[in-house]
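Predict structure. Chain length: 171.
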Amino acid sequence: MPSEKTLSLKKAKVSELTEKLKEAKSVVLADYRGLTVEQDTKLRKELREAGVEYKVMKNSIINFAVKESSLEGLSQYLQGPTAIAISTTDVIAPSKILVKYAKEFNNLELKAGMVEGNIIDVNGIKELASTPSREELLAKLIGSLQSPLYGLAIALNAIAEKQEKEQPQEA
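Prediction complete.
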């Protein structure tokens, strides 16, 4: 039987994770076994820079937290070592980064995830990862808006130059 102190620490971890899961826009579960320290450091750095929280946690703690946050569909994926990536701001970032590294590092295995309350499998994670990020979409929008304006500016400039040439010079 665990001590009172150990039990209260575990309850605190479950409570903290439950709150994060309730606020999360997306979550990805992964099996990290076999990653080298260098690979894990590289992965964690990119996730941190994207505002994604990434932790290795006991399945029992994750299991209690997913049940308390109405994400019990994730429970079936909690076998073996589990790392959890949580984003409260970007729906795509955890999937995009973990899929990228799963391709690069054969030992990183994606399990499942959650997007805005919906449980997704590995194929769903990969599909989400192929979606352009908000920044990419904004860049495309700005580019498509700038192109016609640039063409219009060139045309107006050409018309102005032509009119200047056609007007007789005053002496």
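Summary: The chain has a mean pLDDT of 88.
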